[in-house]
Amino acid sequence: MQLFYFPSLTEQTKSFSFSKEESKHIVKVLRKKENDNLFVTNGLGYLFSTKIATASESKCTVDILSFEKQESPKIHLHLAVAPTKMNERYEWFLEKVTEIGVQEITPIICDHSERKTIKIERFEKILLSAMKQSNQYFLPKLNSPISFKEFIKQEKNSQKFIAHCYEDEKMDFKNSFNLKEDILLLIGPEGDFSSEEVILAIQNNFKPVSLGNTRLRTETAAIIGCHTVAVMQSN
């Protein structure tokens, strides 16, 4: 199934027109014509079945035939992940966790972060593309970058975890959470969190966890954390 995106759709919408850019793609590139069916999501869990009413490269208009709403995930998984030195690695992480299933992502700027400039618009396009490619109906929320210290102090989740590489006492992540409450997991940059950041997190009720026996890259650790929660939910 090929999936399209139109964020302002609601249960009351009867018809709508795609943007000029999307209309050109649908009609000229995909060669869709009047009466062809298209599947569209608003990124909020809805799948709309539509039929093309006007197949114009400048304004492709469709009528909504029916819709269904996907059940929301059991828990809200929020990944707060430091940007990687190589932007491509962070983009890969965004793509994969969207495919697996994540609800919220926050780039956090840490003491050891080598990259502090974030192209949020580029990241949003990566998430949208991954959602459509994997036929998911929920678009993850992407927050603006924030410093580690600011982020730590404002988060109120009851299940808060920080994955770090220090030789301290840590729980195995997969055994540390329950599936009845939302989860927040912090992943640090290359070079890990600073010791001061780990202490600050623990003081703010974050639990130290391990994601395995090997030292993982930032993007790998984030994907494993996301996959762990997804597997536990599916059991």
Mind explaining what this structure looks like?
The chain is α/β, with parallel strands linked by helices and 235 residues long. It is 30% helix and 26% strand. It has six helices and 13 strands. A hairpin with a 4-residue loop joins strand 3 (37-41) and strand 4. Helix 2 (87-100) runs parallel beside helix 3 (120-133) and helix 2 packs parallel to helix 6 (218-234). The protein is elongated, with a radius of gyration of 20 Å.
Secondary-structure element order, N to C: EEHEEEEHEHEEHEEEHEH
**Could you tell me how far the N terminus lies from the C terminus, measured between alpha carbons in angstroms?**
26 Å
Radius of gyration: 20 Å
Molecular shape: elongated
Count of helical regions: 6
Q: Major beta sheet, specifics?
A: 8 strands, parallel
Low-confidence stretches: none
Helix and strand composition category: alpha/beta
What is the average of the pLDDT values?
93
Compact summary:
This protein is of the alpha/beta class and 235 residues long. It is built from six helices and 13 strands.
Helix-strand blueprint:
Elements: E1 3-5, E2 15-17, H1 20-29, E3 37-41, E4 46-54, E5 61-69, E6 77-81, H2 87-100, E7 104-109, H3 120-133, E8 141-142, E9 146-147, H4 148-154, E10 159-163, E11 171-172, E12 183-187, H5 195-203, E13 207-210, H6 218-234
Parallel strand pairs: 1-3, 6-7, 6-12, 7-8, 7-9, 10-12, 10-13, 11-13
Antiparallel strand pairs: 2-5, 3-4, 4-5
Helix pairs in contact: 2-3, 2-6
